[in-house]
Design a protein that fits this description.
By secondary structure, the protein is mostly beta strands. Helices cover 0% and strands 30% of the residues. The protein contains no helices and eight strands. The chain starts with 20 loop residues before the first strand and ends in a 19-residue tail after the last strand.
């Protein structure tokens, strides 16, 4: 961590190391898609996230917290070994974390102690309504398309249409 005077920039640290992985870059977002720009002014508390690529013989296990602002660190797992359930469940307003799922339809809970990792894997957070009398969870099943997630809706309120899923060789209508 660095203490920076407001309006000044952070200094790029030495690249970190990790067993089974190669450091890619520093990112400004929890989805690890926006590279952090060192040299830009820092005007508030800021967290910068390391993005890694698994080395040969290892696989990445990525956790999609689906609507939570929580960052769940990607695990690097040796081929045939088991991923570890994160110590902390993601938090989402008016919802309770239910399970990590291996499918984009959120139907198959992942077995951390029974499913060896043999390829790069993304696990998706599934939630339940914290107060089922007031809220309902709407799960969008993409039928083989990209992950869409869940909407938490106050009962009696309309559901906002999510972003359309994508799928190779198909058009969403």
């Amino acid at each position: 961590s660095q203490i920076i005077t407001r309006g000044h920039s952070a200094t790029r640290p030495v690249d970190p190391t990790r067993t089974g992985a190669t450091f890619d870059t520093w990112c400004a977002d929890t989805s690890l898609t926006a590279p952090y720009v060192f040299g830009s002014a820092v005007n508030e508390d800021t967290t910068v996230y390391a993005r890694w690529s698994a080395n040969a013989g290892y696989h990445s296990v990525t956790f999609n917290a689906a609507g939570s602002q929580d960052f769940i660190e990607t695990q690097i797992v040796a081929d045939g070994a088991y991923a570890t359930k994160p110590d902390t469940d993601p938090v989402r307003e008016n919802a309770v974390f239910d399970a990590w799922c291996s499918d984009t339809a959120l139907e198959v809970a992942f077995g951390f102690t029974t499913t060896p990792i043999t390829q790069d894997t993304t696990l998706y957070a599934r939630y339940k309504a914290q107060n089922p009398a007031t809220y309902a969870v709407v799960t969008f099943n993409p039928n083989g398309g990209s992950f869409v997630g869940q909407a938490l809706v106050a009962k009696g309120s309309p559901v906002t249409e999510p972003q359309a899923p994508t799928r190779a060789s198909a058009t969403f209508r």
